[in-house]
Amino acid sequence: MRAEIVSVGTELLLGQIVDTNAACLAQVLSELGISVYRRTTVGDNPQRLAAALDQALAENDIVFTIGGLGPTDDDITRETLARAMGDTLRRDEEIARRLEAFFRLRRVQMTESNLRQALVPTHGRPLPNPNGTAPGLLFEKDGKVAIALPGPPSEFLPMVADHVVPLLRSRTGGIGTIRSRVLRICDMGESLVEERLRDLMQSANPTVAPYAKTGEVHVRITARADTLEEAERLIAGPLAEAERRLGSHVYGRDEESLEAAVVRLLKERGLTVATGESCTGGLLAKRITDVPGSSAVFPGGVVSYSNAAKCDLLAVPPDLIAAHGAVSREVAVAMAQGARRRLHVDFGVGITGVAGPEGGTPEKPVGLVWIAVSHAGGEDVEENRFAGGRQDVRARSAQYALVMLRRRLLADGD
Questions:
Q1: Which of 8, 11, 239, 255 has the fewest Cβ atoms nearer than 10 Å?
Q2: What is the CATH number of the domain that holds 189?
Q3: Of the candidates 368, 356, 281, 378, which has an alpha carbon nearest to the alpha carbon of residue 324?
Q4: Do 143 and 271 belong together in one domain?
Q5: Domain carrying residue 275
Q6: What is the mean pLDDT of residues 124-131?
Q7: What whole-number distance in Å separates Cα of residue 391 and Cα of residue 107?
Q8: How large is the average pLDDT for residues 254-266?
Q9: What is the pLDDT of residue 242?
Q10: pLDDT at 174 over 60
């Protein structure tokens, strides 16, 4: 079975939004054994979208559209796809009632244009969207299938998981499946990961492929088989062997983030952490609080961007800043200690640096970041030189702070 993904939206075409939805869907289709023939991006232009859909339907068994299902004039997918499939649209009264209730509950006046979202294929059906107002749409004709999905990730991802995957599984029983598992590695470079897994990487089925991400490495192990169970069996051995060779550098599997792994370790050990951040502006605290249930281990953090805030909020001695500068080993340690003491936790993390693009000097260039972890046994502190622009430096700083905290947790647990 061959598929094409058509992403709709001028903001995607201009690069104003990164199309993560299409990448996610392509991976899902691959794991179901469906070959993605092409990914296309089209702006909010009915003629160009119609041409793209005509070509996609002529060359593929199934076509997915992402976006363009809203109520405004530039939401053109619904009508354009219906014409391409030779279908018409009808008003679904149940969806219309839900839309009316949605706006009534929020005390917002519903316009007639909002009811466009109640239009569904005459010879197809809607796909429920409990997370938004626009349902997905399933069209079928002459052996061709077209599925229209909403653009917002908070609506798109649940719809794929809850409706698209079960639908496709029911129709792809005889074409086999592709299954992937991922090991997530920190505190080890890609070249060293490859060196340890070199012989495993020679396998054709499953394949073993490391690839670098920001501040970490992922190892994807992918198997093709007739059934999901057989694919899982093929993966199991190399997965376990790769994890054994990489040891404690493996912080998680599949979708577990580094911050989730750190929160898990803190919970398992009954420990707590607080943050004192300068150049990262609260990014480390944000990543920790992105994890559900992190309030059990993270009472709070301090963003002390100015020198005065470092002194007032984290009890950094003014003479320490005067002697060494705000971006220094000594101040990073004092910030970590201040966070630990002020918030009465087991670990304090301090981050201070020069994120750029301005503010660097020959002695303290852009990208210089000091990170410290304060704990009962003392302090761990490291100097880092991160490359890239301002956001890169901030992201890498928060990432490495999590790496250092995890390293300390593992050391204390031994």
A1: 255
A2: 3.30.70.2860
A3: 368
A4: no
A5: 258-413
A6: 95
A7: 39
A8: 97
A9: 98
A10: no
Regarding whether 244 and 107 lie in a shared domain, the answer is: no
| pTM higher than the cut 0.85 | no
The verdict on 216 and 365 lying in the same domain is no
What pLDDT shows up at residue 173? 62
Q: Which two tokens stand for residue 199?
A: 């012989």
Domain boundary among 253, 282, 298: 253
Number of structural domains the chain divides into: 3
Same domain, 239 and 134: no
**Res 25 pLDDT > 70:** yes
Question: What's the whole-number mean pLDDT along residues 125-143?
Answer: 94
For residues 259 and 402, is the Cβ–Cβ distance under 8 A? yes
Q: Which of 253, 288, 317 is the last residue of a domain?
A: 253
Sign of the four-CA dihedral 218, 222, 227, 230: negative
